[in-house]
Amino acid sequence: xxxxxxxxxxxxxxxxxxxxxxxxxxxxxxxxxxxxxxxxxxxxxxxxxxxxxxxxxxxxxxxxxxxxxxxxxxxxxxxxxxxxxxxxxxxxxxxxxxxxxxxxxx
Length: 106
What we know:
Layout (H helix, E strand, L loop, with lengths): L1 E3 L2 H7 L4 E7 L10 E6 L5 E6 L6 E6 L5 E5 L13 E3 L17
Parallel strand pairs: 1-7
Antiparallel strand pairs: 1-2, 2-6, 3-4, 4-5, 5-6
């Protein structure tokens, strides 16, 4: 579980970062059709954001670069208290006002 500070996540969430849970794509399903938005990520590879077609809530992200994984937005969990971020990624892109970077000794 991690906190992503990349510019794409900042723009997609309207905040300084997004809270994500990585899962193996082959083990994950959603019980209804999502709307998907494609963009080119900071890596230069296509990324896909999935949204609820009724309310627009962000549900997942995935990328061509790491296509065996899907990233679930922690806020979409039925019980978000189960989310405990372990690290930050792309912390060099964190906004100066976002003090949510998780320092890691790993």
